[in-house]
Amino acid sequence: MAIRINAFIVTLATVQILLIVAYSILTFHDGYGDQQKLDTARQKQLDLEASLREPTPAPQEYQYGQPDLSFMFDLNMYSYMGMCLTMTYLRKYAYTSLGMSFLMGCLAQEWCGLLLQWIPLAHCSYLQQTFKQVGCPYGDNPDISQFENNLRALACTCNSFSDKIALEISDFIKAQYGVVAVLISYGALLGKVNPLQMMIIVIMNSAAYCGNKFLCVDYRGGVDGTGSLYTTHIFGAAFGLGCSVLVSGHRPHENPDNAPRYQSNNYAILGSLFMFVTYPSFNCFWAPAELRMYVATNTFMALIAGCFFSFIWANFIYPEGPSVMHLQDGVLAAGVAASTPACMFIPPLLMMIVGAGGTLIATLSFRFIQPLIEDQDTQAKTLPAAS
């Protein structure tokens, strides 16, 4: 029996071995910190009972041990179930789309999980080398307000390469946003690249996403309230279109394989439903804890309005009526449009208008812009992001 070996499998195995070695050397599991929080919470509860002299229910582990666990479940469902299923609409590419989306999502998850912490550590090491001669005259825990130079203050307070990366649940959740950006880019490349090319693109895409997020948010202080607008959706759309322009070349404008079939449309709309129910969690994670209730309700109101108006706008704009692709893009565009105003204290009426407006822009873009960029955007995945 001959062993089948090709360049993709060899490269994939090599990359995975390197990632395993990197995780074993650079990271450790920060489980003690969670257990310490739980023990502290239990002790506070015992002290409270002693002061009141009446028994009260003991704190539950899910309340204190892993507060972000529910976000991890929801974002896993959003990316690996929702986005991967929406890739299956092509009639001759459904199985490959689903399998490659799953595989490349896992690769992006591992790579982003390292880079999102490694890049700030590299920046910290650079700052410490730059300000090494100046020193930190205010002790180990200086008051940052006493520094005349913000970079000097950061050099005296940040963690460098001498410290290992402590892996927590929040780190995996942050990497999920990189997975979403990668899958948005992949939507523009369906059927155009082979697995080896896609793996190389994913590695570069993940690195570019992490670098862009660090520069825009951490270094320059940009505001991305829900962490999903310009650092995830817009970046993924721009990167995907750029790669698609490079690899598309001269292709026929009308491709008979760039069409769905009945079964694949069913899977695609199922993926949109998964994304619909988990979108509030997707927008909530980066929001401050006191604003998460407003973000969730605002996002949900925009999604509901987007669902209604995706049918309404499509009937007005398309003589043949709405299709599955119109409904998918319209509803998701409503969630993307709600990403920034979701953190604001605005009434539900305005959020419903935002959802309806985002759906209208996506529907018009699908009608008038998508035919012009069909060769570069196979799935029209960049239209909701750009809307």
From TrEMBL:
GO terms for biological process: ammonium homeostasis. GO terms for molecular function: ammonium channel activity. Keywords: Membrane, Transmembrane, Transmembrane helix. It comes from the Eukaryota. One of its GO terms (cellular component) is plasma membrane. This is Ammonium transporter AmtB-like domain-containing protein. Residues 164-369 form the Ammonium transporter AmtB-like domain. The keyword Transcription regulation does not apply. SUPFAM superfamilies: Ammonium transporter. The lineage of its organism: Eukaryota, Cryptophyceae, Pyrenomonadales, Geminigeraceae, Guillardia. It is found in: Membrane. It comes from Guillardia theta (strain CCMP2712). It is a multi-pass membrane protein. The chain crosses the membrane at residues 7-26, 77-94, 196-215, 227-247, 267-287, 299-318, 349-369. The keyword Transmembrane helix applies.
